[in-house]
Amino acid sequence: MICSMTGYAAATRELPMASLAAELKSVNGRFFDLQFRLPEELRTVEPSLRELIQARVGRGKVECRVALTPFAGAAPRIAVNEALLAALAEASRRVRAAIPEAQPLRVGEVLHWPGVLGDDRSAALREACVGLVQQVLAEFAATRMREGEKLAQMLIERIGRMEVLIASVQPRLPEAIAAYQEKLAARFREALGGANEERVRQEIALFGAKADVAEEVNRLSAHLEETRRVIGNGGAVGKRLDFLMQELNREANTLGSKSVSKELSEASLELKLLIEQMREQIQNIE
User: 188-207: per-residue pLDDT in tens?
Assistant: First the structure.
C-alpha cells in the first residue's frame, strides 16, 4: 500500500501531576524533514521520539509538538544529582589549579547545568511522553495510509482512462497515416507537375517513416503497465512514479508532434491532461 505525505493525528493523556498533549502533522516534501516543539522538561526524549517517527515515515515535512500543562498544587520534589555535582566540583578545582585566575563556578551556573537538577516526576513524564507519541504515531501512519489508498484509486482510474484512449486510437493509426499520405502525394504531384512520380513515392515513404507512432504507443502502454505494477507493490514509490510520469509525458508529446489527424492530436492532448493530473496527485505520495 502506498502512503500520502499528508497526515495529522493528536491525543492527550492525563497524569497525576500534569496533562500531556501530543500532535503530529505532515505536508509534502522532497526529503524527510522532522521538527520538534517540546517543553524543556522533555527535551531529553527527542532522540527517542526521532527514532520512533523515522522508523514509520520515509518522506515529508513532519512536525511533532508536545505540550505539558502541570496541575495546580502538583509541585515536584527537587532532587540534586550528587554524582554530577561532585564531578563538576572536581572539574572546577582542576581548572583553577591549572589557571589560578579562572573564576569559580557560580551557584546559578551549577543549577542550570544539564542533569544537575531533577524531580520526582521526570522519569514518569518522559515515559508517558514516549508512550503518547507512539499512540499518536500509529493513528498518524493510519491517516497517511488511508489518504494513500484514495490517491492510488485515483491514479488507477486515470491509468484505465489512458489505456482505453490508446486502445481506441491504435487501430485507426494506419488508416489515418494512409489518408494523410494520399493527401500529401496529391500536393507533391501538383507542386512537381506530375512529372516525377518516383520522387513523390520517395517523399511519401520518408514521411511515412517519420509519422509512424507505433513505437510511442507501445512505450506508452509499457509505462502504464509499469505504473500499475509500482502502485500495486506499494511502499515509498513517489519518486519512482514521478519518473514514470516524465516518461509518459515524453511519449505523449512525441505522439502529438507526429500527429497526422485531428483524432490523434486530441488523444495526445487528453493523455497529457491525464498525466498532469496524475503528477499533481503523485506529489502527495511518500
Answer: 666 666 556 666 566 665 55
- Cα(229)–Cα(60) distance, integer angstroms: 23
Closest CA to 216 of 277, 268, 164: 268
| CA separation for the pair 64, 42 (Å, rounded) | 13
* DSSP letters for 16-48: SSEEEEEEEEEE--SSEEEEEE--GGGGGGHHH
The single residue listed with the C-alpha cell 489518408 is 179
Nearest to 141 by CA among 283, 2, 42: 2
What is the value of pTM for the model shown?
Answer: 0.71
Q: How far apart are CA 217 and CA 284, in angstroms?
A: 28
- Cα separations in angstroms, 283 against 27, 54, 115, 224, 247: 10, 20, 44, 18, 16
Whether the pLDDT of residue 68 is over 70: the answer is: yes
Contact between 10 and 21 under an 8 Å Cβ cutoff? The reply is yes
Question: How far, in Å, are 61, 216, 244, 284 from residue 279 at the CA level?
Answer: 19, 20, 9, 9
Helix H or strand E segment including 104? none
The closest alpha carbon to 127, from 37, 41, 11, 57, belongs to 41
Give the torsion sign (CA, 14, 20, 26, 31): negative
